[in-house]
Amino acid sequence: MEKYGKLLKKGIIPVVCPESKDELDTIIKALFLSETEVLEITLRNSFAFESISYIKKSCPELTVGAGTVNSADTLKRAIETGADFLVSPGFLDELHEEAKKANIPFLPGASTPGEILKMSSMGYKILKFFPAECSGGTKALSLYKGAFSGVSFVPTGGITLENVESYLKLDNVLACGGSFMLPKDMLKSGDAEGIKEIIKQCERK
Hints:
Number of strands: 9
Strand content: 15-25%
Oligomer: single chain
Number of helices: 10
Number of domains: 1
């Protein structure tokens, strides 16, 4: 749990797939203004790896996760570019092995009791709950609290400004992730102040 200390502070992980250095500069400024120290870069375009390197060089104090890690090759490249932790929408044995070898925090995705049971038996105490809203949302997580008392979750997928608070009220939710904290239109217009206000609204109360 100590590896995820920064997540516990505010309970949020802004998620983004940047498309330019201008967007990256806006992200960095917004995080600085909101005093947010964690974000996740999803590896969904060719600029994603460069984005991780750019942020780590510009602000090494930020904790940057690589999301949508779906293969061992992608995992290795994310580590090479400076990612501090890794996030996958599901679980693969090869991802587990490579992350373990690299001794880097890894959040595999789970949504069913069978998946949670398997991963918790392998030593995972923190799991990505994805896709959250499609998988039962807060009702499912409330039930999982009793069934999997030693497991904490990071729900993503369908989390919004309107429902994030209901997730963060749950004892077994470590943090919530979502791209809604870094709206694309605000990134394109460079509205770091506007993004700061959204992020502040999402913090655990």
